[in-house]
Amino acid sequence: MNASGAAAASRVVQVNGVPRSVNVNLNVNLSGQADLQFIAPTYTFAEPVLGGQLSATLAGVWGRNSASVAGTLTGPLGNTFEGFLQDALVSYGDLYPTFKLKWNSGVHNYMVYGTGDIPVGDYNPNRLSNIGIGHGAIDFGAGYTYLNPVTGDEFSGVAGFTYNFKNPDTQYQSGIDFHFDWGVSHFLSKQVFVGFVGYAYQQITDDFGQPPILGGFRSRVLGIGPQLGYIFPVGDMQGFLGLKGYGEFDAANRPSGWNTWLTFAISEAAPKTVTPTRHITK
């Protein structure tokens, strides 16, 4: 991931503690790489809830995050300082509980969800690299999946809103954001599918507690890329191995680059008369 301008300046201000009231000019570039592993055990309730299937997930994350920032800072008296910061961390991140309620009607599948961020991960406001985000968050949304077992065609879309709580260490609060994830795929067989995925992220309210130099600091990014999936038996269960990648573009006040997701899941085997499916998560 890479960023420049206000997105990189925001991180420098937070890490180096540049006074918010000082009129400075920051010309910086930020780059980073995160290699993370998510573990997400899920329990599906046997009894229907509101006519649908309820499941609960508690996801955790660990891995390595590295970041570097380089640039110049010009103070109100015209003094210019050049610098380079670099940091790396191998540790654990926050916990992400999720509840999903799903319904099925032929080729149509519906879902509502609620999730959040429990900020127990490794976080330090004076460190350039973090895995925990340092504040809580809640997210609610809904999704729809069309799956035709006869043609093997599938389309999925999930939309939601995220509310971020204030970071108690920095007194900074990110605004509310809207996000939409989508995917289209075609089953080449009952085991293999190919297709495309994408997402859109748009912050819809201003941040609070930001330095005046950043303004409202609303962020945006779009992403699109290919996906490939393989479904296979694991004893009496069903295994799923999926690979998808996103190339990000049209970013504003947010790092952008390439990111790749490799997913391995084991679940109860689907009925043999129905083509197995999976849902997009992010």
Walk me through this protein's architecture.
This protein is mainly β. It is 4% helix and 60% strand. Strands 1, 2, 3, 4, 5, 6, 7, 8, 9, 10, 11, 12 and 13 form a 13-stranded antiparallel beta sheet that branches. A hairpin with a 2-residue loop joins strand 5 and strand 6. The longest helix is centred in the N-terminal third of the chain and has 11 residues.
In short:
This protein has 282 residues and is mainly beta. The chain contains one helix and 13 strands, in the order βαββββββββββββ.
Low-confidence stretches: 273-282
What is the overall pLDDT average? 86
- Which structural category do the helix and sheet elements fall into? mainly beta
Through-space gap between termini: 17 Å
Radius of gyration based on Cα positions = 21 Å
Strand percentage: over 45%
- SS element count, helices: 1
Shape descriptor:
elongated
Topology as a string of helices (H) and strands (E): EHEEEEEEEEEEEE
> Could you give the count of β-strands?
13
Helix content: under 10%
Q: How many strands, which pairing sense, and closed or not: the largest β-sheet?
A: 13 strands, antiparallel
Please write out the topology.
Elements: E1 2-4, H1 6-16, E2 25-39, E3 42-44, E4 53-74, E5 80-105, E6 108-117, E7 137-148, E8 153-164, E9 177-187, E10 192-203, E11 220-234, E12 237-252, E13 258-268
Antiparallel strand pairs: 1-2, 2-4, 3-4, 4-5, 5-6, 6-7, 7-8, 8-9, 9-10, 10-11, 11-12, 12-13
